[in-house]
Amino acid sequence: MKRLRAGDQVLYTGTLYTARDQAHKRLVETLRAGKKPPIDLRTSVIYYAGPTPSAVRGKVGACGPTTSSRMDAFTPYLLEHGLRVMIGKGERSEEVRRSIKKHKAFYFLAVAGAGAYLSTKIKSAKVVAYKDLGAEAIYELEVESFPLIVGIDAEGKSVYQGSGGRGQKK
Prior knowledge:
The chain has 170 residues and is of the alpha/beta class. The chain has helices spanning 21-32, 75-80, 94-102, 115-119; strands spanning 9-18, 45-47, 85-88, 106-109, 122-129, 138-152. It is globular, with a radius of gyration of 15 Å.
């Protein structure tokens, strides 16, 4: 991961955890209360998404990224508590970019407007926390060859600042 640069393309296979606004709020509240969050932030990849329901058990419908700036108020705090990988769409605030650099984290971009396509890369899905939030619950997704672009690398370089990339990575 340390060799990845803003603009690089990757195909991710592994576990993702969905979390949107309300889940982020609860994660921060849990940490501030001195409690253990329902997922280990140090080893988790958080995908800013709220999957739609599917008729097939253990699957989800469309699962495209949501606007990442909606999580900017929570991101520096979660990075301080171990989060290192986030996936979403759109630019991040300067404070978040600096925090990503400080903590040697990564922000990846998922293809916006392609939720139905991205759901074909999801092999299984289950709610692991905050079920009462419905689509905003935290889902554990197992994905295969999930297409991503490095939006902000561990050096704080951003594709939105014209930093460019170095080609395709797998």
